[in-house]
Amino acid sequence: KIAENSSQKWALYHNESVQNEHDAMKMAVGLKEALANEELMLYHQPQIDLKTLRVCSSECLIRWKGSNNEFIPPTVFIPLAEDIGLINSITLWVIKTALKQQKHLIDEYGYNHMVSINISGKDVAQDQFFLDVISIIEASGIPTDKIIFELTESISFSSNTKTIEQIEKLKDIGITISIDDFGTGYSSMSQINKLPFQELKIDRQFVENIGADHRRKVITKSTVEMAKGLGLEVVAEGINSKEDEDILRRFGCDIGQGYFYAKPMAFEDYIDWLNRLDHGRIINGIEGEFIP
Ligand code: C2E
Ligand code: MG
Ligand code: MG
Ligand code: MG
User: Fold this and answer.
1) Any idea where the EAL domain is (predicted)?
2) Which one of 7, 70, 221, 270 is at 20 to 30 Å from 257 when CA atoms are compared?
3) pTM of this structure
């Protein structure tokens, strides 16, 4: 089952989750090395204000190229990093890098949209996390009101008071807290009932090709309504067409993200992409221009 040849092994990871302990250990070693050697990268995917068609934020998405030059998906190595206690170092690296890149966008190009960073539930469960975040932000020169933390589901935040306290503290210093992948796993009603979120991201399974699916329409429409009723900003992931965009806008959704606008791009490509917009405005969807 386990390929002796390491490039074959990476290909295996690429297609499937980690199969066994031996695979996981190999991958853990590779991941630690990649972090230490600055081999991880951040890709950027724009989020679009559906009223103005301007870029309002950029979601930073981590990328790891394995030894055979193939990307190992974050859905595979982030859970591993959580298991082996490496997630905290990775998240701090992500925040540091995202804010450095954000500073570059401001200083060199005058862009001032927000930056969205994915944070694991395991991060906020640690006391030290808040202090580390503060010192990274202070060193970065980026104001906290430009920063969004997207909390992903892997643990149930709402059951842990310490975690809730930490999220409150992040919110109190001005960071926008977003609940990611809403409608899946732990990102559910009990979370928005108890936690200080200001933004809700509807998972793409409800958004993609919404026009062709009555259920998706009903679920998404009522989710937007509920979120707006709670005063939350609503983001739709997985906008793939003009039709998706039009329907979501009609439902009252604030922000769209998806391949219709752009796939996640390496930072240099993202800058080129921004520079080609019409004064920060998307014209008509720029489908498939950059494929990572
Ligand atoms: P997510 O936070 O929900 O990120 C959105 C994912 O959907 C990204 O996958 C993005 O490439 C993909 N996506 C965006 N628009 C479309 C679309 O129109 N169609 C389709 N099919 N996909 C679309 P990606 O980059 O593979 O990331 C997967 C997940 O890994 C993320 O889901 C997030 O949970 C996690 N992740 C990624 N980067 C980080 C990170 O830096 N830290 C942590 N803790 N988790 C991360
Ligand atoms: Mg996210
Ligand atoms: Mg998401
Ligand atoms: Mg997701």
Assistant:
1) 24-278
2) 70
3) 0.90
